[in-house]
Request: fold
Amino acid sequence: MKRIVIGTVAALASMALLTGVMLPLRAHLSIATTALVLVVPVVIGVVVGGFVVGVVGVIAGFLVYDFFFIPPYLTLWVGRGQNWAALAVYVAVMLPVARTVAGLNVARARERRQGAELRELFELSGLLLEDKKLDELLSAVVTMVAEVFGSRQVAVFLPHDGNLEVAAAFGDPLSEDQIRLVLPSPGELASLSAHPDARGEVLVHALTAAGRPVGLLVLSAESVAGLEREPLSLFANQIALAVERAQLREQVLRTRLNEEIARLAKTLVAAVSHDLRSPLARIKASSSTLADNEIDLDQPTRQSLAALIDKQADRLADLVQNLLDMSRIQAGVLQPRRTETSLAELVDRVLGDLGPALHRHPVRLDLPDTLPPVEVDVTLISRVLTNLLENAIRHAPKGTPITIGAQTRLPDAVAVFVADHGPGVSPDQRDEIFGLLARRDSDAGAGLGLSIAKTFLEAHGQRIWVDDAPHGGARFWFTLPTAQMIPEEPQRGAGARH
Reply:
């Protein structure tokens, strides 16, 4: 309607303008010339408003032609027969002209619409080849349909927990009454036809892929004329394929994720069980020996067994605490509580705690006196050093030395290393060795120590890596922040708060 009004105004305005221009020249213009000039407003009206406006323009042109340019002037009376012939020819010619121009206008509009549809279909086909998430895909789809068909309402319904729900929408939201008209009764989705179905003010089109119902496409009915139903069906087929592909992709990703979680859980249980088995077996054997009244044990033996139980219980507690702290750090619950300390004091503390575990390996220290103090969570970094030393003990041959050293490679960090004379780490495993549950060749451990160490260091904003030791074996490096680079914090006690 708006287009007709604008076209009518344009036709009448241009006719008034041309009439005003020709009136002073009326005596010099022939009746045929005037008729040709009055063709222009009719054509303008048809182009802007369509054939109906063209008819209005012909009527207005007839009246202007008769009133102003056919004698007697300023009256609708037509005198001579040739004047009647001129008016009849004007009407007879202008009506077909209006029809022809209107047809060309419609054809151009259809061509533009078809071109837009082809471009959007090409783009939609491209979406089929992309790995877009379903919500991103649906957002692009409803916007595309609204642009192609000029719809003020577009929505896609997809099944969710047995019910159809709006998965994406564009423009004005559907009212409750419209939704009641749209939603089929139970079981109807599978029986919907593959053609648009008008329901009140909206048009409903089933989305089907290979005969299987996928969902519903809903858009305002007035935006889709009868001749556009076929392009809409083509769009709906493409949308159904795109939606089904995205759903299948997400289903595959969920399946893979569930399989990976199950695999990691199984591996984690097996790995932790492995590390728990050895101390539990020793605790069980020692406690059973102490509890057996038939075995006569002297006091030194009883004390040795009790000390073994205490040591293995501490080992179990340390493993559980490391796992808990690692999970808390990864969840963002635990933050390092940094205090200033010297690296030499930290190393002495760890060596003292390990004690007898190092009796088969001489420890060499390469800690320059010029090392700056570091500001770290002493408890967490002690566990890092402990895990690296236990890793070296497990892989180094009996009697070979283990070296603990440090260098000031960076102005704001100290680089610490633990080197052994074991088999080393092959270059292709150096990136994987710090992953959860990763193991070195012939490793009897659970593969948790290096992953825990990496987590504790990353919580400090530092890193860990491995290379070859100068005399064979593996050399594990990690960095610690120097004290002067850390802003002062209120002291709340050493160690991490749990």
